[in-house]
Amino acid sequence: MSLLVNTVFLILVGQLNMLQALLPITSNDMATEETPSFLCKLKFLQILDLSDNQLSGPIPRCLGNFSNSLSVLKLRGNNFHGTIPFEFPKGNSLRTFDLNGNKLTGQLPKSLVNCLKLEVLDFGNNQIEDTFPHWLGSLPELQVLVLRANKFHGSIGRPEIDASFAKFSIIDLSFNNFTSKLPAEYFSSWKAMAIGNKNKSEAKYVGDGYYQDSVTVMNKGLEMKLVRIFTVFKAIDFSHNRFEGEIPEILGNLGSLIVLNLSSNSLTGSIPPSFGKLTSLESLDLSGNKLAGRIPPELRSLTFLAVLNLSNNLLEGLIPQGLQFDTFTNNSYEGNLGLCGFPLSKRCEDDVVVDHSPPMETEDSGSEFDWTAMSIGFGCGLAIGVVTGIIILWNELEYLVRTIRIKYLISRKQSIN
Ligand SMILES: *[C@@H]1O[C@H](CO)[C@@H](O)[C@H](O)[C@H]1NC(C)=O
Ligand SMILES: *[C@@H]1O[C@H](CO)[C@@H](O)[C@H](O)[C@H]1NC(C)=O
Ligand SMILES: *[C@@H]1O[C@H](CO)[C@@H](O)[C@H](O)[C@H]1NC(C)=O
Ligand SMILES: *[C@@H]1O[C@H](CO)[C@@H](O)[C@H](O)[C@H]1NC(C)=O
Ligand SMILES: *[C@@H]1O[C@H](CO)[C@@H](O)[C@H](O)[C@H]1NC(C)=O
Ligand SMILES: *[C@@H]1O[C@H](CO)[C@@H](O)[C@H](O)[C@H]1NC(C)=O
């Protein structure tokens, strides 16, 4: 008789927030891998991470019934199905709740509104059918909301309270069925995306001091796993929905955004010139909409923009020339019949007459130049900081993962012997 060894990793973290035990649990249930029932009896658990196992069936109700000390609950990457059973009591300590990559259905649990310490909420890649959870706007610490690839629908609407989602760093609503206009009123309440962390030594990671959170985002056309979420990383991904109407001018106020992806919607009107103020932007994707008119020359000043995608729209006229626009190739513009000029092979008629550079200031442009130089200097440091931060921490996690795997192999050997 073969003994199937199922392994669940349990990270138990004690009062001092230190890793105290790493327990592989074995069971010989051949058919399904069920959540071990003794988990329900652990009363002082602070962190429960059952990510990337083969657990299936409904989520055991009792998992939501830990003492109020539970701060991290991660069931990511399993095969859980059914609805989300949790009832979160008032005064709980939950900071990270991650159910990404299961087969969960139904609606979001309304008792999440009691999780006043919540920082990271990830329901991505499930089959949840609900409307935009505007009622989470009152959670004062919420920084990351991922609803990617579910069946959310309807309009986002407008905030019901002031400073709704004021601490948002990352919002990913991509691959849902959201409709109606982009939520201009919300954009003006997402203060953290507007101000950012100007003081670099104050920049922190989400979960500092209790846990390393991670989240996966699309950036520059690549799926990127942020092992620890650096709070200066700000991203909005609304791609693959059915948003319509014009892009609100006020989106240009979110000056610390690094990623903006509005691709594959039905947006109309023109690209707002206010996007020239998104000076931290590194990745801008507006492809697959119905945007018309000219590309605003203000975008030339986005000195960190590494990826620009305006493909498959109705844009026309001369592509802005010079500065950052020298770095984009013609696949940033494909599928816009009316665009002309470098890097497209189509030349503009009356090329020379059409000059879209911003109106010249009077001769004393000296101060303006200085300002640009300063902002480039600052921005460079920041961009490098973000990138090295991610790489270094990525390596740290690799180490952690290896350690767990080694222990797993040892314990497996022992149980086979
Ligand atoms: C949750 O815990 C309370 C008290 O600790 C208990 O009375 C209740 O039955 C538990 N509920 C579930 C679903 O385990
Ligand atoms: C989106 O909603 C429309 C109707 O409201 C429906 O026909 C369509 O199947 C939905 N798409 C998805 C991906 O859920
Ligand atoms: C930046 O933050 C650090 C730590 O809070 C503080 O010591 C320092 O004075 C701040 N610097 C500026 C320029 O505000
Ligand atoms: C924007 O989102 C779509 C869909 O998620 C993705 O395929 C694309 O690569 C993203 N664009 C960028 C520049 O990351
Ligand atoms: C822009 O998006 C289109 C799909 O809409 C894709 O084919 C193209 O390669 C993308 N270009 C860049 C520069 O990412
Ligand atoms: C895009 O650039 C490539 C190589 O630079 C060129 O062969 C191609 O004709 C260009 N396409 C258009 C539409 O300008």
In short:
This protein is α/β, with parallel strands linked by helices and 417 residues long. Helices cover 14% and strands 21% of the residues.
Outline the biggest β-sheet.
Answer: 10 strands, parallel
Overall morphology: elongated
Write down the CATH class of the largest domain: Alpha Beta
Number of separate strands: 24
Structural class: alpha/beta
- Rounded mean pLDDT score: 75
In DSSP terms (H or I, runs of 4 or more residues), the helix count works out at 3
Gyration radius from CA atoms, angstroms: 24 Å
Distance between the termini: 15 Å
Kindly describe this structure.
It is found in: Cell membrane; Endomembrane system; Membrane. Its main location: membrane. Keywords: Cell membrane, Glycoprotein, Leucine-rich repeat, Membrane, Receptor, Repeat, Signal, Transmembrane, Transmembrane helix. Belongs to the RLP family. The chain crosses the membrane at residues 371-394. By secondary structure, the chain is an alpha/beta fold. The protein folds into two domains: 2-361, Leucine-rich repeat, LRR (right-handed beta-alpha superhelix); 363-417. The protein has three helices and 24 strands. It has helices at residues 184-187, 191-195, 366-416, and strands spanning 8-13, 19-25, 47-49, 56-58, 72-74, 79-82, 96-98, 103-104, 120-122, 144-146, 153-155, 170-172, 177-181, 215-219, 222-226, 235-237, 242-246, 259-261, 266-268, 283-285, 292-293, 307-309, 314-318, 338-340. The strands form six sheets. A ten-stranded parallel beta sheet has the order 3-5-7-9-10-12-16-18-20-22, with no helix packed on it. The longest helix has 51 residues, at 366-416. It is elongated. The two termini are 15 Å apart. Residues 330, 344-345 line the site of one 2-acetamido-2-deoxy-beta-D-glucopyranose.
